[in-house]
Amino acid sequence: MDILNELVAWFADPVQWTGSAGIPARMAEHVYYCLLGLLISAVIAVPLGLLTGHTGVGGFLTASLANFARALPTIGVLFLIVLAAGIGLVPVVCALVALAVPPILVNTHEGVRGVEPRLRDAAFGMGMRGREVLFGLELPVATPLILIGMRTAAVQVVATATIAAYVGVGGLGRYIVDGQARQDLTMMLGGSVLVVLLAVLTTLLFAGLRLLLVAPGLRAAAASAR
Amino acid sequence: MHKRLALIGLPLAAALLTACGGSDPYAEDEEGGGGAEAGSVVIGSADFPESTLLAEIYGRAMEAEGVDVTYQLSIGSREVYYSQIESGNLSVFPEYNGATLAYLDDEAPSGNSEETNALVAEALPEGLEILDSSSAENKDSVTVTAEIAREHDLSTLADLADVAGELTLGGPPEFETRQQGVVGLADVYGVEFGEYRSLEVALLTQALMDGDIQAANLFTTDPQIAVEGLVVLEDPENLFGAQNITPLINGEQVDETARGALNAVSAALTTEALTSLNERVVVQNENAADVAQEWLEQEGLA
Amino acid sequence: MIGAAWDWTTGVLDWGVSNWSYPGEPDRGILPRLTEHMRLAYLSILIGLALAVPLGLACVRWKPLYPPVLTGVNVLYAVPSIALFFLMLPYTGFSDWTAVVPLALYTLVILLPNVVDGLRQVPDHVRQAAVAMGFGPLRRLVFVEMPVAVPVIIAGLRVASVATISMVSVASLVGLGGLGQLILSEGFRRQFDAPIVVGVLLTVLLAFVTDALLVLAQRRLTPWARGDDAGGGSGRDRRAAARASAKAAAARAGAGTPDADRTTPAER
What we know:
The complex is a heterotrimer of chains A (about 230), B (about 300) and C (about 270). Chain A is mainly α and about 230 residues long. Chain A is built from 10 helices and no strands. Chain A has helices at about 1-10, 25-55, 60-70, 75-85, 90-115, 115-125, 130-160, 175-180, 185-215, 215-225. The model of chain A has no long low-confidence stretch (mean pLDDT about 90). Residues about 1-35 of chain B have low confidence and may be disordered. Chain C is about 75% helix and about 0% strand. Chain C is elongated. By secondary structure, chain C is mostly helical. At the A-C interface, helix 3, helix 4, helix 5, helix 7 and helix 8 of A face helix 3, helix 4, helix 7, helix 8 and helix 9 of C.
């Protein structure tokens, strides 16, 4: 249990909690990259998924595109953009977006497609128009699935943002990459623990968002689907 | 849990490796290294281009002498390949004498090539040996652009003392914490950079040219130094010590024929030759194997 | 502009063709990297499946087991892959297991829920009918429950295989990683784009081919789910339900199931 003691000592060392290499600074950087990546992904994927789901046009294309993006090796994307654009935030965020778009896109599309035709017929029957059906019926019904897609994306992004350290930016990956280079196992483990913690927090956050955003009547149905 | 998995895993993995035409780490055990006239060796390399190139050069020179050579290239971590040489899964590794010493004893003093080799030989565990050092050397450096050198009138590391506070130094993560790095720069030269940026070695030149960093811990045989007209700051106090190319071997597994071939390469190789071969691999993007073969033929070693 | 793009493309292709393989040197070139990639990915997926099926069965039999197991699998998934690879290194060295063990564990996050959902969706009356016909637990599992679960499990396998194939490359950071080696050592470390592009494209291609093979396997394994028109109402319903739940499971894992989309409108 030596390693556990060392890990506790690592976290207890006041040096870890101050300065630009301290845990708060690294955590803030990590959260920043992840939020930026997720936000951009959501801005791309949610409208696209709503559109293809609502119109039923381009569903095959969307799914193929998402599959293609999912198959892209993240380090390949990262390194290629670094070669083209230099080091910095751009390659990191691009790689994270490539990672986060597929789950959000597919879930948004499937969420809207999965709205029961009877409900859609009823909405049209009540005189709702295309856009009203989309925002009044389809989006709320699809929200639980969209949130699940975003949660999947978020957990992946939180874990993967660590490779940003390979191209010279900060974040929690620094502890893992630097720890490896310096043969410092404790530092590596400490970094991993922080990443896992952040992922757990992310999951909790989405559980909270679900309570906030999903209509109460839908929650029970969504829960049974889960 | 890991250990138990490893126990089940290793033989299976070895079987798979063999099945797929990869290396066979057990081949040496059967033949018993040193017994046969032209034995077989496994040569490894670290995961940067020069190390791979050197493994190709040394490996092909041994092949030319009839030694059966298997290649296990681009191994990420010194800890890993070192333990593999100890265990005999690797038998030859192109190393740098100073780096080997620093790995074995991180408090060892910097010295010239002979001093360093004597200390390495002393510190190596039973069974491991180093062969002759080449005159070819690849040292750590602090390197700046010509522009920065002119602007701050820099030619040696000592000149950095007054200006380093405004500059950012880039280098691999381990350079920040070791004696032959940021620590020694402060101790020996009183140089303390404003900031340190951990970067993959491959990215340093680009970061330097883009102005993301103002000084970089480049290797002296990096062909980009000549291509971009960079200035390597002199090291009058010999902080960075000797870094001669020196094969590290598992003694039992490398016979006299193979040793002869390895020593012949070390004798023929120079820093200039190595730098120009690096240039062909890294800048011209030629294949390391082809470049190695051509050089050996030109030197009459293959 | 177009000329430059053409030159670049032919340059990349040229590098790919001329480095494909070297006769007499089986360790060199792109081909051995590709086979290594396939070996690492397929081994991880198979081991993942071999773990997920018994684990899923246990979770269905003993319901309270599922939530903690699922949480554990999810936490494991959140550990960054580079950290796990590095942590494996001292134990497994550069054997395949350094890459395979973490990758196999990651697949569980997708495979386990799909196995559980697949098994749970067996309608109660079907199970009871099997019992009434004298099927013991094992026979029931093999001949009734597993076949019904297959479409959902394969939907999970498709997502897991694409994810694993793309993630193998990260193992190159510890000196394994198949095509990732091409990307990292040949490409990135030399600041040379051709090997990176070739590595990325081959990874995507491998993922697509694997996905197609799994779709084929599903058609083979579940002939009743094919578009036969003989079935009466109940058969149709069951088919639609199976497909819809497979799709839902895939969507939950964030999968793309292009062909499912084409068939559903007709089924509705």
